[in-house]
# Entry
Amino acid sequence: MDGMTTSLVGLARFGRHASAVCVRSVTPPWSVADVAHHTWLLATRCALPVVAVVFPAGMVIALQGLLVFEAFGAERLLSSLVSVAVFRELSPVLASVLVAAQGGSAFAAELGAMKIREELDATAVMAVDPVRVHVVPRFLAALIATPMLHLVGCMAGVCGAWLVAVGFKGQTDGVFWANLWGLSRPVDLFGSLLKTVVFGALIGLIATYKGVQASGGAAGVGRAVNDTVVVAITSFIVANYFLTSALFGALR
# Structure
């Protein structure tokens, strides 16, 4: 019972934190410069890892897809498979995982260190809202940067598949690009962008919550960072199923 009570209390605190952040996000003022600064740092910090992960994943999809399509004489459909897999699932999930691991952990560490050094309390004592000043810019940065990095991942995944299909396996370049949209539609790309907006919001809310709730010195900051990565990734992967069902299942 104690464990259940603790979980319910923690969930209520997170709900209060999420509502406070969301309300302040849509009711300026907040620092546009801070939002741009954190967005730039997050995007530049995660762009290369996203490319490094999604590019070879696209190569693997192309390699395995060719083995299947060759058995049915349908190699021309390879790029159609790649576009569906990369746009709908591969790039949104992998890009969000890296945002949580790189950006979310950094946000939790920064806010956790500020909480331990009582900087958040000092901000409140000066009659300045610490949520509006320190939390909202980081939340909005995750909200903005995650879809941007998803687009980078889409390009990387398709290019990785092209390298295998055209560069290594000798498929005609024109055939690859002509069939890229054979099984996918613009709604797939827009739907995946919507998914990454939701994922970015979850990452931003969880990272900032774990940061402002940190306690117990440096060890507490470390726990906040670890919890941010685990909880954020678990949350948006679970949410991914329902979003995929709504966007690409029932609505198609």
